[in-house]
Amino acid sequence: MSAEPNSMTPNYYTAKGFCFTSAFWMILATFAGLLGATELMAPDLTENIGWLVFGRIRPIHINLVLFGFVTPGLLAAACYILPKLLKTELFSEKLGVVTVVLWNITLVAIVVTLAAGYTQGREYAEMIWPVDMGVVAVFCLLIVNFVMTVKRRTEPILYVSVWYVLAAVILTACTFSLGNIIWRPDTGSLKGIPDAIILWFYGHNVFGLLLTPLSAAVTYYVLPRACKTPLYSHTLSLLGFWSLIVVYTHIGTHHLLQVPVPTWLKVIAIVDSVAMVIPVMAFLINIWYTVQGKLGEIHADVGAKFVFTGTIMYFFVSIQGSMMSLPQVQRVTHFNNWVVGHAHIGVLGFAGMIALGGLYYILPKITGKPLFSRLLADFQYWMILIGVVGFTVVLTIVGLIQGNAWLNGEAVYRILPSIHIYYVARASIGLIVFTSALIGVYNVIRTLTYQPKESAT
Amino acid sequence: MYFPYFIAYITIGFVISFVVLIWALKNGQFKDQQRARFLPLEELPSERPAAVSRIKRIEIYALGFLAAAGLLTSAAVLVFSLLRG
To answer: Which residue of A199, A295, A301, A336 to mutate against B (max B Cβ within 10 Å)?
Structure first.
């Protein structure tokens, strides 16, 4: 497919498409989470309704949050940021629109197949082969569009955000293909321990090599621009980038410390998990020094506010992650709701916040008009912040109850009555986040469609 | 044999990273880092800078409380795990 000729004003169809995709699927993703949390609270709620049982709702929730809400939100910002930093236009808006359409078809397929019970039964890699191929295809299309955009650039230096975006799409295409064993369409898996090893390389890296680099890319662009100040150190940002690429690819086995996996592999996973402090702090120190003394500017821009809060969450989730890879800590925190709390800080608090921040930052720029409602965006910010903190507190408490009880030899079912109240709180918080998604999609659709009074004819 | 897939996975990542790193070195991507710091600021509209110190005090207190609570929780679990784990 060839690129269309340059026009004076870019139309940003791809970015707009990803914005709408993210906002729309956030509703279904958070509703699936709310339904799953409600089923944990009241297990008989969907009794005899096969396609709504917890075992099907949970993978729908996870895959929609990952591929429906957060990734498209970050990609929307990437489709705006990349051409700006490279002083060119996106290689092909037509190809971008085809990617958005195929992305949405794949998301529909994910929901339908998982709800119908078609699953490969591997955590985070539940989708069956045809759906896997849809995901691989959209990432291949993104690689073509982004690499060709880089090739046609007029700015010789690649800013760190460009590095992160390219790494995210290229490495995720590899990670997804390998992790889902796409060369074995019938099962999508290996056998025994090798399958567990490769699954958890995929399971960890699909977040760490997709959401983390895209979030870093958006942060490195939005915060300096919102604060109207140069990046503290581009060299430090590249150090963070390359150390992330080197370290992050090895740590998946920290999910398998209680499993008969070779010890050397566990040691690599633990050492590199702790070493993640290097890229994380390189990123955070750089960003926080950049915005030092500029909190007023961040507060003035709702997109930057989301993004900055995401960096704080990144600090927590990364410190937690390094800590949780230690075997002694895992004896308490593994296989219980602590990990679920950790995942919510990472995906909703860090990457989700930054996805929404990127989305709100670019919306006025790609539409050429102000955000429909700053108030609604602020309201959504506080609802999500309260939701993330609420999930963290509640799930951490539940995790500690479960972990400590099991460490002391208590049976699983005997713990359930003592954690029920926390499951009620969890579902209530889920309702807050779901409501925020409704507010968000309304704001996004109105921003895309309304005509400001001064420009209305 | 448990390790071929792991080795393949790591090798692919390293090969791609190494090739790109060599390309970056040859293309001078690590030179002129001072100019690179300013790249996001180009084409910045000449609008009046946002007013400083507009932060509502309650937001600062709320964020500070959340940050402190998170750090204390993490520290408590680490201590608890190391003592009991």
So the answer is: A295
Residue of A195, A204, A322 whose CA lies nearest to A259: A195
Structural domains in chain A, CATH included, are: 17-448 (1.20.210.10)
Cβ of B75: how many Cβ atoms within 10 Å?
Answer: 12
> Is any Cβ of chain A less than 8 angstroms from the Cβ of B66?
yes
Q: What is the ipTM of this complex?
A: 0.84
Looking at CA atoms only, how far is residue B15 from chain A in angstroms? 11
Contacts of B10 (CB under 8 A, 6+ apart): A249, A250
> Mean pLDDT of successive 10-residue segments in chain A (457 residues)?
53 96 97 96 90 96 97 98 96 97 98 97 94 97 97 96 96 93 92 90 91 98 96 96 89 91 92 94 96 92 96 95 93 93 96 97 94 93 95 95 92 91 94 95 92 60
Contact residues for A314 (Cβ-Cβ < 8 A; gap 6+): A215, A280, A283, A284, A350
Q: Do residues A377 and A357 touch, judged by C-beta distance below 8 A?
A: no
How many CA atoms lie less than 13 Å away from A378 in the CB half-sphere?
Answer: 8
DSSP H/E element including A304: helix A302-324
